[in-house]
Amino acid sequence: MSRTRPPRWILLRGLTRECRHWGDFPERLADSLGTRVRCIDLPGNGIYHGQDCPPSITAMLAQVRKRADLNAPVQLLGLSMGGMVAAQWAAHYPREVAGLVLVNSSSALSPPWQRLRPAALPLLLLTLLTPRAQREALIYRLTCARRSDAHTTLPKWIRYANECPVAHANAVRQLAAASRYRMTAMPPGLVPLILCGRGDRLVDPRCSHALAQHWHTQVREHPWAGHDLPHDDPNWLLDELADYVNTQKKSAFRR
Q1: pTM as predicted
Q2: Is there a contact between 42 and 64 (Cβ–Cβ < 8 Å)?
Q3: Is residue 11 within 8 Å of residue 39, measured between CB atoms?
């Protein structure tokens, strides 16, 4: 890897979400860190909405890696189920991964009622039964704590849903794959960063703390952000990623 060119970032979204749901965050990340950023849709989502989603996180990863076009180790940022795919990538292909950041993710280390808050379950089931506009409004309510931009964000989300509709069967497959996923050990030398929002109405922040404890790493908790932390407070997330990269540089220098 070039000493003058930092590893590029790959961003992975979660359940039924696609690359466009990152908004302008990828561009801001690229400018902030002076690096390249690429978003990849998970199978069954976004530009791959016409494909059947495979039944496991491992099988999802296989498709994502084929689309990654790797020529050097990358930094992975995974949100929710995207964090599960990113963690699987780091655990099984450590030479391809220079860093790992998970946001509001979970695993079988936590009980089901923490991985999916009981109060969120009726809303989540309702999203499978309502027209797309109402469904996106429900998801916005469930995942976003900052709602001042509803008048601009919701129309975009509805347009994404109309242009690249996620099949109900794919949504169910993704939910089932996420519910079965068990985090594995991290390779030596890779220190993940775990981030979560205290206002997450979908996944209990204790799931992130369980991951951090399992991997003997740190967890940083946003005081009010919801599940979609990149939407709620992108500046906070950018600062955390910059600190993570600087810590990596210091560790490499000491070695």
Answers
A1: 0.94
A2: yes
A3: yes
Q: Specify the DSSP class assigned to residue 20.
A: G
Write out pLDDT tens, residues 198-221.
Answer: 999 999 999 999 999 999 998 999
Token couple for 114: 């923490």
161-192 as b/e: b if 16+ CB within 10 A: beebebeeebbebbbebbeebebeebeeebeb
Residues 152, 117, 165, 24, CA torsion sign: positive
Ramachandran quadrant class, 169 (left: phi over 0; alpha: psi -120 to 50; beta: rest): alpha
Say which residue the tokens 């079988």 belong to.
Answer: 108
pLDDT tens profile 151-161: 999 999 999 99
- CA nearest to 164, candidates 24, 28, 13: 13
